Every structure is written in structure tokens, then in C-alpha cells.
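Researcher: Let's continue the batch. This sequence belongs to DUF112 domain-containing protein, and it's 512 residues. Same format as the previous ones, please.
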Amino acid sequence: MDVIGYLLAGFANALTPQYLFLAAIGVTIGTAVGVLPGIGPALTVALLLPLTYNFDPTGALIMFAGIYYGGMYGGSTTSILLNTPGESASVATTFEGFAMAKAGRAGAALATAAIGSFVAGTLSTLLLTFIAPLLARVALLFQPADYFALTVLAFVSVTALVGSSIICGMISLFIGLFFGLIGIDILSGQVRLTFGIVELLDGIDVVVVAVGLFAVGEALYVASQLRHKREEVLSVRSSVWMNRDEWRRSWPAWLRGALIGFPLGALPAGGAEIPTFLSYTVEKRLSRHKDEWGKGAIEGVAGPEAANNAAFSGVLVPLLTLGLPTSATAAILLAAFQIYNLQPGPLLFQRSPDLVWTLIASLYIGNVMLLILNLPLIQIWVKILTIPRPLLYSGILVFGTLGVYSMANSFVDVVLMYVIGVIGFFMRRFRIPVGPAILGLILLPLAESQFRRALAISQGDLSIFITRPLSLGLLLAALAALLLPYVPVIIKRITGKQVQGGRLVFGRGEED
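Model: Same format as before. Here are the C-alpha cells for DUF112 domain-containing protein:
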């Protein structure tokens, strides 16, 4: 059966009432959590994981995917009306979106964000439909050495490119690797780092770590910041629509944002943050309305929001074909696959084609739902911002505690969750990113097993990692990712020019 045939079969499944209902729940919850600052899709999926153990895997993954891309859109609402991004990927939207809202053009900003999300989401899902099966066939050629090199690339690139510094990224990664080492070694049967606690013999469940780092850590951090004055939410005084000139200026930005977001989202450590900032920079360079930038240029909202949502489909390419998450939420989705005894990778398309193609078909449907949900109901989403923070985060703590306890009725799991939550609080306090920790925890078993298998095949010869062209290329890419943050410093030393905030300064001007 060809791609079109598989996709049509996927639509036949995705259009059943059960899956339509779960997709609608997913995009609704996703939009709601995207609107609330600090509560992103990663936290939400982590909270829901223990409650969906008995779900149909396809339905659960459709709902989780809806939460993911719904959250990507919802962050634009707070960026525009509150100048506070609900998601880190929506930071670039605040630059022009909030300025538009202050100028009484919040409706146009929200409209270009919603329509741009739909256009870019649909285009990127179309690319996913045809590229993912091809990459899955290529991935069948991977050997253990190649898979180990791929995990090294993921570790290094996420550590180097996420967070305020490489040191902070490394600290986060090693926290995750430490959690992953706890328990019985699956190959040798040796007990590792259990400290005599019997309940740790099976290791720490990824849900416990995820809920601890994301939910408990975030709740504790927000509690420590509650004494700060709350910002005022701007009202939507105009209709949520665009005039002819705004349409004319938005659609090229949507297309460019989609073309930037999809490939960069598929790269290790790509996520959605890098493509949104890149899209903002591209639109600013190409704009004919230079005087509007900083005062409410609509391209500055259209491009980043399109890149934001296109990056989601890009993230799914390595996740489905290689089992490689390129963002924190993707890492939680990988954990969801594993909970249902599914291993994303090249064989997933062969062993579970119904699941894969139903999931892909649901993305098209979810994008339509998202558009219908957000344009007419924007005033409802704005009301969510009025929920008191103490009430909201208290509910999250209760919900997380019940969910973790219900997994194995274990009090030890609950204690571990809160201990890890304290670690998560200090990570936020000292601006250490959480993503590398989750990635390290989830990918460690794959990296360890593939490393040992490669050495078994080569009879202990480490040169196997550099004699295979594919593994060598991946390791060189990891080295490049490690050196990339130092490029501005190197340029400074070579040219003698100053570097400020990642920008080269020439005399009195700046080059972005």
C-alpha cells in the first residue's frame, strides 16, 4: 500500500467518534495549558500519563499529540495579551504581538497567530506524511554503533543549545543520567545506586521524574514568586480578524515560517525555540515596513507562530522514525510509547501502521479543530488567565500526587516525586534547563544497550564508532553542536570585534 492508501486508512480510523472525541479533548486541554504561563504541554502530558495506562494506545497518543500542538498555539494568547509567553517557543511572539495589543490591534494579532498556526501545521503535517516513511526506510540501515552515535548527538546538541550555558545543560543531563542508572542493569543483572531501597530495584519510573521536575518543581517555583505583582491582561477590543493589508503581509510570513520550522524542529535540539527566533529575524530582514518593528509589525507575529506550529510536525519525524526526541515534550511522548510497549523507530511503520497513520491523520483533523476552537472562543481563553495562581498550582500538586500514587500504589514513588520536585525547583531557580534531564533519563537505556552491542560485535574494538561512515558523521555532528556556542567568541578573537548577547557589534551599530 502506498502513502496515500495508508493515509486514507488512517483517516478512516481517525474519523471514528472515539478518536475525534479524544482529539478534541487534546486540543482543548492543550490550548488551555498553553494559555496559562508556566504550564506547558510537557507538564500536562506528564500529569496525564499515569491516568491513561489503560487507554487504547492510539487514542492516548492522539490526545497527547493534540495537547502538544494545542499548547504550541495557546502560548500566543498570553504572549500577545500579557507579554508573558505561555511556552518558551512563544517568546518571539511577544516582541510584536504585545505591541499590537497595546495599539488596539490584539484581534489582528490573535487572528494571524491562529490562521498561521493552521496553515503551517497543515503544510508541515503534509511534509511529515511523505518524509517520515522515507526516513524510516533509511533508518533500517542503522547498526548499534550508529544508534549510539545518534544518542550522543541528541545528548550533546540538547545540552549545548538549550539553556543559558553548556555547564547548566551538562548539569541537567547528568541529573537525568543518574536517575536512569538507578535499578538493576538489564544486561549484567547488577544492582546500581539503589542505596538499599527495595522499591528502587526496578528503577525510577519516568512518570515520577517527569511529574516531579515539571509539575512539582514548577509549582514550588511559582509559589516562591507569588509575592511579585501580577501583570494586567490587555483586553481584545477589536474583532478577531484581519483586514486586506494584514492578510497580504501575513501569508508570505506563514509560508516562510512553515519552511523554517519543520526542518529545524526535526533536528536534535531543534524544538520550536530556535526556528521561532530565526523566523522573527528573517521577517525583520525582509520586511518593507522597517518603521513598524517594535511597534507592532504583524509579520513578527505571523512568522514565529507559523514556525512554532510547523516545528511540532518536524519533531515527530525523528521521534516516529528513529525513536529520538528533540524536545522535552517529545521525550515525554516517547515515554508514553514505551508505556504502551511500543518502540518508535523504523520498525514502527511496519509493526504498527494503523497507529502511525491514524495518528498522522488526526493531526490534519486536529489543526481544523484548533482553528474552529480558537477564533470564535478567544474571550473564553482570556478568562482562563484570571484563575488564581495558588488555586491552580495546588490543584496541579494534588492531581500529580494522585496520578503517581495510582501507578503502583507506592508511597515511595510519591516521596521520590517530591524529592525530585525540590531538585526541579532549584534547577529553575538557577536557570538549569529541565529538558536535558528528561532526555538523559529516557535515552540512557538505548545508548547503553547499543554501546554494548556495538562493542560485542567488534569484540571490544572502539574503532567501530569511527570506521562506520554513518556513526562517524553523527559523532562529528555532535562535536559541531558542542562547539557551536563558542563560535561568537571565536569570531571575536579572530576579528577583534565585540560580542554582546550573541550579536556582533560594529562600532556604534549592531548586526543581528
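Researcher: Any comment?
Model: The chain has one domain: 3-226+244-511.
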